[in-house]
Amino acid sequence: MLTKLSHRLKGDLILPLARTFIARGIAALGGLLLVVVLGRLYGPAGVGVFALAQSVYLGAGILARYGMDNALMRYVGQDHASSAIKIYLRWAVSRSFSLSVLAAVAVFLLRHRFAIWFDAPMLASVLPGIALTIPAFTVAFVLGGFMKGIRRPATACLMENGSISLIASCVNPPGCSRKASAG
Asked: Which pick of 65, 79, 149, 165 has the fewest CB atoms within 10 Å?
């Protein structure tokens, strides 16, 4: 009986754990590759500007989520077969999307102010593109909370972390740089 229980726990625990570990590895690889690509394209100053821009969209996204990703994870996780799940998801996505659009507009309008606050003149030219990412980033995190609630932690990890970074770095591989193509 103990071996049956041990075998069952291994099957129920090992596979989701392995999936989540692989997803986190992909996310970490994506983040690392993106920084390598940015470093090759724009040098250390460009990576610094990206880090500042990233802090702006991370902060705006956290505020725009308003904790709805965690609320979804909690309420959906309590009864992931409930008929109210779609209502919770729709409400959380619509609220967070609305708030994130407001945050994106604020970042766009205050881009020159951010450049002054961070003492980084190049930041003002990067923030319009970053403002466009805030709604997508916010909704991805809210959906990640939902995925955790329906017991899909690996999918949640890919939505919350480096899958977009991995895709962005694969579009322009590390061997290609603006300096190399200019010569």
From this structure: 79
Residues 6 or more apart in contact with residue 10 via CB below 8 angstroms:
none
Residue pair 20/97 in contact (Cβ under 8 Å)? The answer is no
Angle at 120 between CA 173 and CA 40, to 5 degrees: 15
CA–CA distance, 29 with 37 (Å, rounded to integer): 12
Contacts of 19 (CB under 8 A, 6+ apart): 153, 154
Q: Which residue, 170, 130, 134, is CA-closest to 36?
A: 170
Q: Are 142 and 72 contacting, i.e. CB atoms less than 8 angstroms apart? A: yes
Which token pair is 104? 């994106």
Residues 86-133 have pLDDT tens digits of 888 888 889 989 999 999 999 999 999 999 998 888 889 888 988 888
Provide the whole-model pTM: 0.70
Dig out the tokens for 12 from the structure.
Answer: 């129920």
How far apart, in whole angstroms, are the C-alpha atoms of residue 77 and residue 80? 5
| Total count of residues recorded for the chain | 183
Cα(162)–Cα(74) distance, integer angstroms: 24
Sign (positive/negative) of CA torsion 21, 73, 89, 87? positive
